[in-house]
Specification:
By secondary structure, the chain is of the alpha+beta class. The protein contains 14 helices and 24 strands. The two termini are about 15 Å apart.
Length: about 475
């Protein structure tokens, strides 16, 4: 399996005539998707698409162009790293798309037949002479009327995601979400595929559906922002990546393709620091308030901010009385001005570094010599043991139990390379074995050294002797269940 989470997606298709569901592995000569069984086809055989990028659009466009009746098929996109875990359950759900429409909506790929798209374009009103497109308010998308929470189907959202209105109201998140913002904090969502429920961390936002109803959209955590991938037609340079990692903002405008229309628009780009999601905001939709905290912004300053620039070294005073100096910059993820490079942040960083240094030096005296220890693994050390440790010798501490209740003998010794002591445990049933028996190496490394065995990494119980894979159905179920999205 390709370990590139959130970078690529795969397609699962449904033949709406026959009801056949399959993973897309290619395209037949007649334009129909070539499908294979989801439950038995490995990920390596599937076509993979860069998330939100042209390859996916090109495949769908080619499919529409060649297929005699493209509406006979439905497509659902799934993150590559979730295919082997979620794909089989998802294929069962897709067999009944009507009953599971709300659950499938976030994964569905919209297909617009050319004739329909043309009709929509003809019926769209053009900008009037009195208010040409360029003259329309740049804040329309941000300052439009808020969503009415009473019109949201909260029972359906709780059933689908495990999120209650009361939770959003108490946290203050709902106040921002009704204005088309993401929640400022993470929530635990509990989607269900088949008989399995998953607990995942995500920011939340609302989406307005064509029928006027609202859906909850989770924004899951990624391990890191995918800066090596093309983002809406733009390839980040080395300097771009460095700036995004440093401040969270690109710091300039770039031309990006609109994900719905393909139209190129001037945008600002930022990273959501909680989810690592890359987000963009068209410049013509940015609204900047004339006052931030205690700072008044004139038209020149607003112009600089709308183009990604910095307003440097501003003396900020927050309503709570806190004062600090910081640069101002627009953040496309927060859709607001943020404070960066602040002296307050630098002070916290320096305090954190100092604390880390104190932790690193906890094994040494102020002059750099090794510190004398009176206890190890909660066992007292006598004078001779302390002296042997200071001399760099391997010290027999005594008999105890490990964290899983197994009897063991503890040794420890100072490691000059790592500049800290290290523990060695020897178990009674291995007294005739030099080192660790071959069949027990995985068990020993996982149970005592904090190592990870891929085949059992989600199993909660300690491994048994010789165990390298789940031992029963219960452990297999634990191993299949993810602990959270892979950022």
């Amino acid at each position: 399996m390709d370990q590139t989470p959130d970078q690529q997606e795969v397609l699962i298709a449904r033949d709406n005539t026959s009801g056949q569901v399959g993973a897309v592995v290619g395209q037949n000569p007649d334009g129909t998707p070539k499908m294979a069984d989801v439950k038995s086809t490995p990920l390596s055989e599937l076509i993979k698409f860069n998330k939100g990028q042209n390859p996916l659009e090109a495949f769908i466009s080619n499919f529409i162009r060649q297929a005699k009746n493209p509406t006979l098929f439905s497509f659902f996109k799934l993150q590559e790293d979730k295919y082997e875990l979620v794909g089989p359950a998802m294929s069962d759900i897709i067999k009944n798309p009507g009953d599971n429409a709300e659950m499938l909506k976030p994964y569905e790929v919209e297909i617009k037949v050319p004739q329909q798209a043309e009709k929509q374009e003809q019926t769209q009103p053009a900008p009037t002479q009195e208010q040409p497109k360029e003259a329309q308010s740049p804040s329309t998308a941000i300052r439009k009327a808020p969503i009415d929470p009473d019109r949201i189907d909260w029972a359906k959202i709780e059933q689908q995601w495990g999120i209650k209105r009361d939770d959003l109201e108490k946290s203050g998140a709902l106040d921002q979400m009704v204005y088309n913002h993401k929640s400022p904090q993470l929530f635990t969502v509990t989607p269900q595929f088949g008989n399995e429920k998953y607990s995942l961390q995500a920011k939340l936002s609302f989406r307005t559906n064509p029928d006027g109803s609202y859906s909850l959209v989770p924004h899951f955590i990624r391990n890191e922002p995918q800066l090596d991938q093309t983002f809406r037609g733009y390839q980040f340079t080395k300097e771009d990546k460095a700036e995004l990692r440093k401040t969270g903002n690109l710091g300039k405008t770039v031309e990006l393709a609109d994900p719905k229309t393909g139209e190129m628009k001037k945008c600002l780009v930022s990273i959501d620091k909680l989810t690592n999601e890359i987000e963009a905001m068209p410049v013509d939709k940015i609204y900047i308030k004339p006052k931030v905290a205690n700072i008044d912004l004139d038209m020149k300053a607003i112009g600089i901010l709308k183009n990604g620039g910095l307003i440097k070294e501003q003396h900020v005073e927050l309503p709570n009385g806190q004062k600090f100096t910081a640069d101002l910059q627009y953040n496309a993820s927060k859709r607001d001005i943020v404070f960066i490079n602040s002296d307050l942040y630098r002070q916290k960083q320096e305090q954190g570094t100092s604390a880390q240094q104190q932790v690193r030096d906890s094994w040494h005296n102020t002059d750099g010599t090794v510190k004398r220890l009176e206890h190890w693994c909660k066992l007292p050390l006598n004078e001779q043991q302390q002296a042997d440790y200071l001399a760099g010798k391997k010290v027999l501490v005594g008999e105890t139990k490990d964290k899983f209740g197994n009897d063991c003998t503890v040794y420890f010794q100072y490691n000059p390379e790592k500049r800290q002591p290290e523990t060695t445990r020897v178990y009674p049933d291995r007294d005739k074995v030099v080192g660790v028996a071959e069949e027990s190496k995985t068990q020993y490394a996982v149970n005592n050294d904090g190592a990870t065995n891929e085949a059992t990494k989600n199993v909660k119980e300690p491994l048994q002797r010789g165990q390298t894979a789940p031992k029963d159905e219960d452990q297999q179920r634990q191993q299949r269940k993810p602990k959270g999205p892979k950022p």
